[in-house]
Amino acid sequence: MISTILVPTDGSEHAAKAVGFAGDLAGKYGAKIHLVHVVPDTGTSNIPPDVRSYARLEHVEATERDLIKSIAEEILLRAETQAREHGAGEVETMIALGAPAEQTLKLAGQMHAELIVMGSRGLGDLKGLLMGSVSHKVSHLAPCTCITVK
């Protein structure tokens, strides 16, 4: 019944709970998990002054783009580890560029996901909402079943 689960993650507490939940489901159904971290912008080749000074001291080159990619990779590595600890066997990770809700919906369609599992709240600025705008939009427009975890 469930062979493909899409799990967008931003590293937030709710996203971590969603990853664990999806790992449990994947283990139970033998489903493949696709973990995605969406970045709205890849950054520039610039580097903040403080980081530039540190990079010079350490004799390394780093750009804003490098930092964003590194953070995204770390978020996905942690999520992959967590999903496997919860029973997922097959896990794929990817970084997508664009608006989180739109990219999640696009990927769900492309991979014919039967299920999207995501946190009800992410790292967004709006604190007063019961459900974040990304999870709200995805749950209403997704081509498949959505589970929001809090």
Features:
5-stranded parallel β-sheet, 150 residues, alpha/beta, Rossmann fold, 5 helices
Please characterize this protein's 3D structure.
The protein has 150 residues and is α/β, with parallel strands linked by helices. The chain has one domain (4-41, 76-149): Rossmann fold (3-Layer(aba) Sandwich). It is 46% helix and 21% strand. It contains five helices and five strands. The protein has helices at 13-29, 49-58, 64-85, 100-110, 133-141; strands at 4-8, 32-39, 90-97, 115-119, 145-149. The protein has a five-stranded parallel β-sheet, sandwiched between helices. β4, α5 (133-141) and β5 (145-149) form a beta-alpha-beta unit. The longest helix is centred in the middle third of the chain and has 22 residues, at 64-85. It is elongated. It starts with a strand and ends with a strand. The model is unreliable at 125-131 (pLDDT under 50).
* Strand element count: 5
Radius of gyration: 16 Å
Distance between the termini: 24 Å
Low-confidence stretches: 125-131
Strand content: 15-25%
Structural topology:
Layout: E1 4-8, H1 13-29, E2 32-39, H2 49-58, H3 64-85, E3 90-97, H4 100-110, E4 115-119, H5 133-141, E5 145-149
Parallel strand pairs: 1-2, 1-4, 2-3, 4-5
Describe what is shown at a glance.
The protein is an alpha/beta fold. It is 46% helix and 21% strand.
